[in-house]
Amino acid sequence: MRKKQLIKSMALAMAGVLFASCAISASAAPPPVTIHGTGTTTKEPTTGLYIANQAADLENNPASIDVQAKTSGGAEIVYDLTVSWGNMQFEYDFGGQWNPSSHTYTLGTSGKQGGGWTAAGVDGTNNAITVKNDSNFPMTATFSFEIGSTLNPSGNTNNGAVVGIFSENNNDFVTTSGGSPSTTSLLDQGYNGTGIAAKMNPTVNMEMVATELESGQIYYATAGNATSNIDTAKKDMYFALSGRPDTGLQQSSLTSIGTLKVKVAPYINATRITKP
Fold first, then answer.
1. Would you call 60 exposed, middle or buried from its count of C-beta atoms within 10 A (0-12, 13-18, 19+)?
2. Rounded to two decimals, what is the model's pTM?
């Protein structure tokens, strides 16, 4: 799978979240300074101790030393997410050739007489998107697809027009019933199909990984009983195209048809937990 680093080690502070205490280190590097002069002493008659009389010719007193300091840390939240995805290459088969002898269409690459999207496009690898949260805060990811005019020159709001859909379960798109992979009816419906709207802009939550934190340390979760580990910090999403391209739009080679977007944001109203 190709990989793209979407957000890497960004030290940001959310609005309404207090900064942690800053560690401060000081470094002073003054040039050498000589302070000199002459003076006399006076004996104190009662104690017998000698008191130095400061001379007027003392120079560079007091010495001026430049002191420098810097702060480190201070960002309560560090965002670090990785998004990876498959080749995202799909093929629509308009149907096989008419056979006058059998009065049927020969099966095309979709395995269906009437045509359809081929199962190779939704094999669980080509159409997979993975978002991995290594931040120290739970995150959300929202998926969307903006289709161009290549497959729908008349617009993408007509019934049956091609749209992009998502699911956390790839079995929504492909089945192996009968012994060979084939696409489900969901990929035939297109715009305004049953259940299509619910799959067009899904949002998923990802916990932070808190398994290595020491007892007494603070972490954040989507709920007080949420499990914060590697498995719950990673989400797999699967993409598919549903609907029938406009007639006559045969493309002999792969061409760009739209843009898939993944938008990440901090989880709203997280629970602050002290690790036992």
1. exposed
2. 0.73
